[in-house]
Amino acid sequence: MTGQTGPQQAGRSGGRSTRQRRAVVAELDATDQFRSAQDIHEALRRNGDPVGLATVYRALQTLVDAGEVDIVKTDDGEAVYRQCNPTHHHHLVCRNCGNTVEVTGPTVERWTERVAAEHGFHDVSHTLELFGLCPDCAVREEPGAAT
Predict the structure, then answer these.
(1) pTM of whole model > 0.90?
(2) Which domain-ending residue is among 86, 105, 128?
(3) Is 135 left (phi over 0), alpha (psi -120 to 50) or beta?
């Protein structure tokens, strides 16, 4: 992490690395799937960490603002979080099990630049999340599939 001067720094966020934030980061490290703040809070409490739900939300927002965690809105509007690759990417997310794949999309990037230029926009950012069924869940969803 750039600019880290000691255990009190929280990477790119520039804020203090609190015990609660470190606990949230450790919980995010435990899986490659997107998880809700409520899921993270529940897991922390189950593991004996008395962190409050509001603190989990604040820690997640700090990590999102610092670019250390990605946030995605699910089909039903719920915000879910995941530690990801720091380079620009998109996500392919299974809406059944949450399995997530980071994908790059050069065609999307070129399209974004072209549309922005056509309308005179500058310094444009974007997000793209694709939701579907992963191969395992798709097999289970097929008519006549064994459960």
Answers:
(1) no
(2) 86
(3) alpha
